[in-house]
Amino acid sequence: MAAKQKGKGSEEKSSSTENMVFVGKKPTMSYVLACVMQLSQGANEVRVVARGRAISKAVDVVEIVRQRFMPDSVKLGEIKIGTEIIGSGDDQRNVSTIEIELKKV
């Protein structure tokens, strides 16, 4: 019975992150293609999320999708910036975050 409850929780988490692309260490075009695939398969919006050094790559991803791959069919939505506290105790540090929304026109 506990396994069923755990399964339900993981389903809820995946549904809230299904239209998100988390930018990290992979090449930029990997994230661009992930965004284009989601938008072409019926998603009305995609959120590109990054933190720390990956923020500039996330901006590059959004601009490549907007200008090269889908110039007339995608527009910028909401852009959220923030700070997360990473670590605990004396090892805490602030890490910048960004969330950029791409919407179909």
Which terms summarize this structure?
105 residues, single chain, 3 helices, 41% helix, Translation Initiation Factor IF3, 4 strands, four-stranded mixed beta sheet, alpha+beta
How do the strands and helices of this protein lay out in sequence?
Blueprint (H helix, E strand, L loop, with lengths): L1 H15 L3 E3 L5 H13 L4 E7 L3 H15 L4 E13 L6 E12 L1
Helix content: 40-55%
If strands are numbered along the chain, what order do they take across the biggest sheet? 1-2-4-3
Percent in strands? 25-35%
CATH class: Alpha Beta
Mean pLDDT rating: 88
CATH topology: Translation Initiation Factor IF3
Q: What is the alpha-carbon Rg in Å?
A: 16 Å
What's the assembly state of these chains? single chain
Describe the protein:
The longest helix has 15 residues, at 2-16. Helix content is 41%, strand content 33%. The N and C termini lie far apart (44 Å). It has helices at 2-16, 28-40, 55-69; strands spanning 20-22, 45-51, 74-86, 93-104. Strands 1-2-4-3 form a four-stranded mixed sheet. It has one domain (20-104): Alba-like domain (Translation Initiation Factor IF3, 2-Layer Sandwich). With 105 residues, it is α+β, with helices and mostly antiparallel strands. It contains three helices and four strands, in the order αβαβαββ.
In short:
The chain is an alpha+beta fold. It is built from three helices and four strands.
